[in-house]
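On clarity, I found the account of how folds are encoded harder to follow than it need be. An entry of this sort, consisting of the sequence and the corresponding backbone structure tokens, reads as follows:
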Amino acid sequence: MDLLAKRLADREMTIEFSDAVLEKILEAGFDPVYGARPLKRAIQNKIENSLANEVLSGTIKDGDHIKVELDERNTISFNT
């Protein structure tokens, strides 16, 4: 998550994760057999890919402060 924040800082964006989102990512990426690999994949699939789509569509722009939260459907959403 820190690496993502640093990459966004290059575009003057900041990001903030709700506790519920962090918990959801940890649950999705927890696997004692494979270590951190599933966690990295969960971050990529659940946060980075969706965030990239929001940036490409213009919904999120350079300089925005992004709040990552769970919506009413328990889905990760991005708010600026």
Q: What stands out?
A: Residues 23 and 29 are 10 Å apart (CA to CA). The radius of gyration is 13 Å. The chain has three helices and three strands.
